[in-house]
Amino acid sequence: MEPVCYTVSRFPCRIGRAANNDIVIPDNSVSSLHAVFALGPQNSIVLEDQWSTNGIYLGTQRVSQLAIDRSLQLVMGRVKLDLALDMADLDTMTAPEPDIAAPAPTFRKISIQPGAASTGAHSAATSPPDGAAASAVGYRVPLPAEPIAGTPAATITKLTGSGRQGIICPHCWHRFDVDEFLFIARHQSLIGDPVLGADAAQRFLPSRFTKEGNALDVAGMSCPDMACPRCHLRIPQAASEMPPLFLSIVGATASGKSYFLTSMTWDLRNTLSRNFAISFTDTDAVNNQILNDFEETVFLHSDEQELVALRKTELQGELYNQVLMDNMLINLPKPFMFTITPAEHHPQYDQVRQSMSRTLVLYDNAGEHFEPGMDSVDNPTTQHLLHSDTIFFLFDPTKDVRFRRKLSGGNDPQLSVSSRVQRQEIILTEMINRIKKYSGMRTGRKTAKTLIILVSKFDVWKQLLDADVPREPWHWDAASNTCALDVALIKNVSFALRQLLEQVCPEVVSTAESFAGEVLYLPNSALGHSPELNDTTGMIGIRPQDVDPYWVAVPMLYFFYERGFIQNVRPENRVRHAETPATCKLSGDIYFVTLPGLKKPLQVPLSYAGSQLRCPGTDMWFSITPGAAAESEHGGAC
């Protein structure tokens, strides 16, 4: 595959993995918004890193801001960029006429060579995950931007702010510069805000500051708290200093999203610190109060034998902020925010302290918000999907009629005849349609986001899965004094679960894989056991003493692994199985793998290339090398 070339003549020009960038590179080593080409003094071109995980390298030197005044070769993640500047524009830039603004320069070419980069200076941060190729064939989806012929300009979306100071509000997702922050007045007489109402403290743009950097309100009081200039909601200081990672949890009504979120955050507080030298703490206790209450109910209840339950997530109420914007009352979901930083005993603390220090922003919506017809201008509660780096879709087998037939005979109240069933692929389709509608994503294109299908309540259906699912898919790495994630094992479990879903509810698989280039299927159980029916209330509940979550942290660990926060098990420490000879043929983004004794070939998505997989129902193991794609027309050995 030849390098892809672009001409850029309008600025700012965004480059990254997300589909709403001007130049899209769908590689996991590239951040959602990785960098921005902006205009500097006298129309010079400046490349600015946007807090990317894997950085930008000029040779062996990581750069955060770089003047493009000559042809350069850069490395962005594991992708090589050749930048060639129009020399006529360069002459204009270096010797402009006095008092005359220089015309905007253009790039003669930006040549993008996917997967071509490998430098020792940053190999630890950008080493490709299992299944990622070392060449162009490693891409799971085609480049969304069309290669150009001639010199048409790229389409540019104008940003409010284009520099490294850009902030994305976790409440309304408005992007703004640091100097646009409003401050929250503290004097008791300064009450009444046009956006938040008569009882809220006033928000103001400061002109005076204390020596500590806090704003002074008109009454002369020091005001440390800041707010978004659009929705006026408070943004914690840590969230303004550390670039965000957005994560959305989607699922049908009563599918257990709140239980999953509660168990996941509780498990992460312990697992990340104990095993991976990563600190996971509340960014702000006020924003996380509801989730903290949930954790106390499930894991810190005073009476472990009492039957308890989490309250249902409502369409409105305490999980939402109501603000007045554009002369409309709008409900915005309250985000849960966590600060992620490497612990000081992290083996690469000095090198990764900046790239790993992030604010994780999570959203929990009522399932009804994802149903068709529930997306409205005054209720944009699911638009965080556009900004999410990864989406978790919670699939509940107890709500699927076909799974229920396979699980009949049990006494789990979730499988009773009276409990609700639902076609969950409709919720998934609605989610996909909203992302496409608001992002302008073209039909037939696939997103660069990783979509993780979480099949919940594993304790109820685990006998249906033909795979070994150990409680902890990670191993101690003596060389680094931290644990390493067994990505090969996780991929194999994902493949086995995909095969099960294809047999029981194939429309879920086809819908997910028509949208995302990488789809991971993971089992989990937020409680680890079946709930009980409360005879008094008629509602189901749980006893805290019985709660034993299973694989609730694994999806987030994989999310962190993709961003270089967690290492993979070293090749020499991986368990390898004897492989059965197989042949494979690539068609589109699916490998057709032929194994002895099978009547029809296995269908293996391109994202599994490089992983050793077990054929479900047999003892045959096989793997697909990424280079097999080059021989796809004639079929090649796997």
From TrEMBL:
Residue ranges occupied by any FHA domain in the UniProt entry: 13-63
Protein name stated in the entry: FHA domain-containing protein
Matches recorded under CDD domains: FHA
Top-level taxon of origin: Bacteria
InterPro entries reported for this sequence: FHA_dom, SMAD_FHA_dom_sf
